Amino acid sequence: MAGGISLRGLYALLVSISFFSALCAADAVGDLQTKGRAAFDAQLAKSTTCTKDKLQVRKEWGDISADAKKAYIAAVLCITQKPSKLTATYPGAKTRYDDFVAIHMKNSLTIHGTGNFLSWHRYFTFAYEQALRTECGYNGTQPYWDWGRYATSPETSPIFDGSDTSMSGQGAKVTHQSNGIKPAGNGGGCIEKGPFKNMTVNLGPVQAMADTTPPKNPRTDGFGYNPRCIKRDLSNYLTSRDCTTAKIASLITASKDINSFQTTMQSQNGVHSGGHFTISGDPGSDFYVSPGDPAFWLHHAQIDRTWYIWQVQDFTKRQQVIAGGTSMMGFSSKAQSLEDIVDLEVLNVDGKKWKIKELVSMTDGPFCYVYE
Ligand SMILES: [Cu+2]
């Protein structure tokens, strides 16, 4: 069929066109991010502390180069070799990485399901990123995990494929139970491949789920020394149900105020739980100890990004707003206030604690970064 186009060629062309348009349509979240950027830039122009030349850009793991991935991985491994500043208080904290786990454990009941959930974790993730930079010579930024992008198969995503440019992958296949949140996946055992195969989690467990059987901590509060491998049980069960691009986009567009946004995000079928329990295992499914899995930070950067994208849809009205209480335990909870303090103790960036109202904008307080 010289000069013409064969039926097979035409078919391939049609398939590639529809595949391409499906890809475009699939990034509704990226579209919302793009739409909000002008509002962010306008605020950036007015900031006295954050200027364009200082602005740091956080990107999706799949969008950064192999060298950038390796630099991030090297910095994480580096911080697991630095000494803890908390060993005297929490004997299980041996490394500087453990300090982040310990501070999260200590605060768990007053930073989840509370009014400070988003701001506390924003500062926590930022403090980690800054520690990688100042204590381990990292020049990059905190990458994020766009759950929707790999919703059908997180195990084969560049984040979890087990390659040397991944955050390590699936746990070894072992017989195990459902953790009550999702059916048992194809892992459950120790991660055996990739950069973090020899990393240990030293603190906890505190609230181990049924899909793992970690050894008990020598202390009932979980702060004793209990080194063990990192276990995972990755599957697409929750990402394909709760963390698709359509679900993330609807969380952003359907939540009209901060209360509905943070409540929907943290609900049992929400993206927060979805990301944590996609990783699962030990400490991934442990409510207290979850930062002990190095993929935690990519997940929480995406939590933070989702908050940012929600904010920029109506930027002036979505920053100085607060809802919720100060404790997960209703009886000791009072209303959270924008004046309340976020204090990360030995993790504070430049030793500073901040009020929540100083942590709601990425161009204010200690922050100067944006998501792309
Ligand atoms: Cu948390």
Automatic annotation (TrEMBL):
Residues 163-180 have a biased composition (Polar residues). Residues 1-25 form the signal peptide. Pfam families: Tyrosinase (PF00264). Keywords: Metal-binding, Oxidoreductase, Signal. Residues 112-129, 293-304 form the Tyrosinase copper-binding domain. The keyword DNA-binding does not apply. Residues 163-188 are annotated as: Disordered. One of its GO terms (molecular function) is metal ion binding. This is Di-copper centre-containing protein.
